[in-house]
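Researcher: Structure prediction, please.
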Amino acid sequence: MVTVTPVLRNLSLSVLLSNVPIAASAAGCRLALVLAMDVSSSVDAEEDRLQRGGLASALLSEPVRKAFFSTDLPVALAVYEWSGRYNQQIILDWRMIDSQSALQEVSDTIAFSKRSYNDFPTAMGYGLGFGAALLERGPKCLYTTLDMAGDGQNNEGFGPQLAYTEFPFDDVTVNGLVVNAAEFEAEVELVTYYQNQVLHGPGAFLIIANGFSDYERAMRIKLERELTPPAIGALRKLETAG
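Model: Predicted structure follows.
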């Protein structure tokens, strides 16, 4: 069992913050949204290509475009990849999505990004800690959401629940995107793990992708739900959508 002491917590957060460059100040945004992509060793090169391409395409889909620009207040977006305890990398630093051209540039950045790591385990607690540091120095918006996408459970270091007690997640909603790439029994186990250990905050929800080839569809549904104004910050019943 891993115990995170206050000293370790402060050290871990300071290390994470030192690896996250300082963002330009921003004001007047309705949502700070961070997307975390799993690049652990269980994700092969083709699956990684599908998730990057799927995310890039989902961002430009008509329902997601409409949701982004549904109000006068823009959305701030950042994307990073995670795997081992010391293996996180920013793909897209904080960007205010305040125009169609900004959204196109963000999609292109993700589509042409290259994987930083490919042979490390699934350190979800550390991945969440990195996301917390990214949110801490990001723009202050009305709401904050972090999305954890992955195809497996934590298998290195402390898990999500300890991360939520040791890092600043009080005002953060953590949603999940489970990539089911195994048999039915494994799917049920992974979904249950995300429901009980990963989802965090009021209205947190889970979307299931049936393999990485289904990543774009699942991501589109999740983004549309998160970005549509009535869904942001509302207390909603936890549900799993396939």
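Model: The radius of gyration is 16 Å.
Researcher: Thanks, that helps.
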